[in-house]
Design a protein that fits this description.
This protein has 329 residues and is of the alpha/beta class. The chain folds into three domains: 46 residues, lambda repressor-like DNA-binding domains (434 Repressor (Amino-terminal Domain), Orthogonal Bundle), CATH 1.10.260.40; 101 residues, 3-Layer(aba) Sandwich (Rossmann fold); 129 residues, 3-Layer(aba) Sandwich (Rossmann fold), CATH 3.40.50.2300. The protein contains twelve helices and twelve strands. The strands form three sheets. Strands 2-1-3-4-5-11 form a six-stranded parallel β-sheet, with helices on both faces. Strands 7-6-8-9 form a four-stranded parallel β-sheet, sandwiched between helices. A two-stranded antiparallel ribbon has the order 10-12. Helix 8 runs parallel beside helix 9. Pfam families: LacI, Peripla_BP_3. One of its GO terms (molecular function) is DNA-binding transcription factor activity. This is LacI family DNA-binding transcriptional regulator. InterPro entries: HTH_LacI (IPR000843), LacI/GalR-like_sensor (IPR046335), Lambda_DNA-bd_dom_sf (IPR010982), Peripla_BP_I (IPR028082).
Length: 329
């Protein structure tokens, strides 16, 4: 038996009008009530009739997503959440792996009438995209964009707070010799995480053991730690720019019989799936993909419906997940 909007209303305890407003991305719905409706839709496996809605509204029922890569656990998690939340609103998600603004797939997505709106996930040429999307009148939302001046319609993580929280956690454990291994300087997240880290140390009148720049990969953490070991000097704690870097550090330490966290504590960033599978399990900063996807969806649907006339940005706090790679002293 086909599930109807009335079944969703009954299951959620909300009115049919409220359910309808949620489906249409109305910003007037309280967040608690919106979540009740979304939970009921998921439980009942309710899917709005996209074809009927498209005919009635003149919309395509398709949201485009441009992303630089899916070989990234954080991006992958956000895409999965976006796909699920948009499906609850009756939209299909069309994904393009970007090689730049001029790529064929991107050109197809941003043509008029191809998509109702577009989400850019951690874009590297955001200025060019924004100019083109504005020219074509396509509503868009940026996630994890690189330039603060483009925050008008964006969902970002408070990476400064993440770096500050990571350093504060290690300082509270008594560490005073703390290294930070950064990602590439081109990324806003790199700069903000480092700034937060340094702020926490400066408040204690400390300087870092070392700040190292490199790629967000296992090899960067591994080679840096191997260099420290060869030089015969180790920090007592490391804040890694992401979980891959942290994994490289831990691998190098374990090869030399250095115990984590007893001799060197390690904090990562992102909370990849592997973070909870490592031994020791990795303390890290979680970027909540579900909150990011929900905020981006609500913002984009509000733009599509015309209810959001002015710019709006959402900044989401990361969450410190304490595991075995740091110890309480």
């Amino acid at each position: 038996m086909k599930v109807s909007i009335f079944d969703v209303a009954k299951r959620s305890g909300m009115s049919v009008v409220t359910v309808s407003r949620v489906l249409n991305g109305a910003p007037s719905v309280r967040e608690k009530n919106r979540q009740k409706v979304l939970d009921a839709m998921k439980e009942l496996d309710y899917r709005p009739n996209a074809a009927a809605r498209s005919l009635a509204s003149g919309k395509t029922g398709i949201i485009g997503l441009i992303v630089t890569t899916l070989q990234d656990s954080f991006f992958d998690a956000v895409v999965k959440e976006l796909n699920e939340v948009l499906a609850l609103h009756g939209y299909f998600l069309a994904i393009s792996i970007s090689t730049g603004i001029g790529s064929d797939d991107n050109h197809y997505l941003i043509q008029e009438d191809r998509v109702d709106g577009l989400i850019l996930l951690s874009p590297m040429e955001e200025d060019n995209y924004i100019v083109e999307l504005k020219r074509r009148g396509i509503p868009y939302v940026l996630i994890d964009n690189q330039k603060p001046e483009n925050d008008t319609f964006s969902v970002t993580i408070d990476n400064f707070k993440g770096g500050y929280t990571a350093a504060s956690h290690l300082l509270e454990q008594g560490h005073t010799s703390i290294a930070h291994l950064c990602g590439q300087e081109m990324f806003r997240s790199t700069r903000e995480r480092r700034s937060g880290f340094l702020q926490a140390l400066q408040e204690k009148e400390l300087i870092p053991f070392e700040i190292v720049h490199g790629e967000f990969d296992i090899g960067m953490g591994y080679s840096t730690c191997k260099r420290w070991l060869k030089q015969g000097t180790l920090p007592t704690a490391v804040f890694a720019g992401d979980d891959n870097i942290a994994l490289g550090v831990i691998n190098a330490l374990m090869e030399e019989g250095i115990h984590v966290p007893e001799q060197v504590a390690v904090v990562g960033y992102d909370d990849y799936y592997i973070a909870s599978q490592l031994h020791p399990h990795l303390t890290t900063l979680r970027q909540p993909a579900d909150k990011i996807a929900l905020a981006a969806t609500n913002m984009l649907l509000s733009r599509i419906s015309g209810k959001m006339k002015r710019g709006s940005s959402t900044r989401i706090d990361p969450e410190l997940i304490v595991r075995e790679s740091t110890s309480t002293k």
